[in-house]
Amino acid sequence: MDLTRLFLFASWDLNLRCHHLKLYKKQCRLNIRKYYFSQLIISLWNSLPNHVVTASSVNSFKKRLGDHMAEMDN
């Protein structure tokens, strides 16, 4: 599967906050596309703080993500 068809990095020309690995979210005119996994996950990814996204390993990312999600629940 070609992931570049699902995800594109946002341009630095845009006003980016949080982290530099934000993904571009395409506009959807049909509800069927709006609820695809690839569309839903982009909002979640873009809302993560920089220290979570820039983790040095998968295990570090999972730990930081878990900690971040626990903070959100409190």
What is the strand and helix layout of this fold?
Blueprint: E1 8-9, E2 23-24, H1 31-34, H2 37-47, H3 50-53, H4 58-73
Antiparallel strand pairs: 1-2
Q: Which terms summarize this structure?
A:
two-stranded antiparallel sheet, mainly alpha, single chain, 5% strand
Word description of this protein:
- The chain is mostly helical.
- It has one domain.
- It contains four helices and two strands.
- It has helices at residues 31-34, 37-47, 50-53, 58-73, and strands at residues 8-9, 23-24.
- A two-stranded antiparallel sheet has the order 1-2.
- The longest helix has 16 residues, at 58-73.
- The chain is globular.
- The chain starts with 7 loop residues before the first strand and ends with a helix.
